[in-house]
Every structure is written in C-alpha cells, then in structure tokens.
Specification:
Layout lengths: L13 H15 L7 E7 L5 H13 L5 E5 L7 H4 L7 H7 L3 H9 L9 E2 L4 E2 L4 E2 L5 E2 L5 E5 L14 E6 L2 H11 L1 H4 L2 H23 L1 H4 L2 E4 L7 E5 L5
Parallel strand pairs: 1-7, 1-8, 2-7, 8-9
Antiparallel strand pairs: 3-6, 4-5, 9-10
Helix pairs in contact: 1-2, 4-8, 6-8
Amino acid sequence: MKSKTCLVKPGMAIRRQKLVKYLSSLILEGHSGKPFRVGIDGIDASGKTRLSNELADELKCSGRQTIRASVDGFHNPKELRYRRGRTSPEGYFHDSFDNQAIVNNILAPLGPKGALKIKTAIFDFRTDAVVDAPIITAKADTILIMEGVFLFRPELVDYWDLKIFLDVDFATSISRAVKRDQYCLGDEESIRKMYEERYIPGQMLYFSTSNPKERADIIIDNNDFQKPGLVLLSSKRL
C-alpha cells in the first residue's frame, strides 16, 4: 500500500510536529510483520488523548492499519468505581478500570499468537452501561495506540511493545482540568476538590506501587503542549 501525504494541522507547533514524526518513525522502523502495541500513559490532563490522536494520524499516513483505543472504554460500573467513596484515591487506582477486560479484548489478541479479534470498548462510563462495540479484525502488522491513566500497572505493563509516559506536574494538570472537566465535574471548586482528594493522591499511589516512569521506554515533558521535550529515550531499540 502506498503511503499517503500527511498534512500539517493548522496551529501545530514545529517542535510538536517533529516529535510526532520522530515517534512515528520509531514505531514504523522494522516492525511491519507483527502487531505493535503502544501505551501512552500519564496523569490526568497530561495530554494523552491529544498526542495519541496526532500520532495515530501520522501513522495512518504510512498505510499501516492504526487502531486507537482508550482506557476510558474499560471503566467499571459506577457502583464498583465508587464503592470506597466518591473521593477515595484508593478507589480511583484500584477500582476505576476492568484491567482483565483490557487484556482479554485488546492486548492479548494483538500479542504473540493472538487471534487479532479485538474490541476497543466494552463500557460507557457516561451512561454507566455496557456497550456492544463491534469486533475489529486487526491486520498482522497493525499498530495499536492506546492511551489512559495507570497503563503501566503490573496487570498491564508487560503487554506493551512501547511505553510512552507524558510527564506533567500536578499544578499543570489541575489548571488544564479546570478548563476541560466542567461538563462532568462541575465548577472550578468542585474540580479542584476532586483532583486534590481523589485524582492526585490516586496517581501518587500509582507512582509508589507501579513506578511508571521507571518502566517507560520514552518520557516526554508535556507541560507545554507546543514545546514538548524528550526527557528519556531508553536504550531499548524498537
């Protein structure tokens, strides 16, 4: 299949363009014969969705099948997510997502000897209901770009072929959340309360138990969307 010509998105800074193209080249180089699973992790509002969409768009230009997924499609039901309390950081880390479903529906099917039949979502947390997502038949050399919090926890970490962590400080996370999360969390005071009591302590629990930065192959400083910078590129060769 011939490669398509990728068009630069208006307003996308040159530095960001270069990073996306660089990450794309790392993924594409020498991996045309098997599925490749990329996990993009980071704290809340670190820019995971934005980078994942940009990277997926760039990769599609190569002609390779590229599948986008998010941990948001694998939430547990509300009664399980909040069984320890609405603001519980332990509940956020331990109860938010169905990790075994992520393995069964995406990561294992795209692994060695996998059947290549996947689902990118099984639950809609907005309606608190199971979703009947279609089964996607992946190609033998498909690329998966999946983003979300807690992706490098012990239950999932060994399934990724490339682990990218977006490093953002908590103050930046809250500042972005105040602008982004009003539709689901309410006014600024409510958002700050949830982040200070649930999300940030939940992330600190994740850091202390799972060491995501130490497990990452690539760390990107994403405090400035327009000027992301590589902090770590591991010696691992893709």
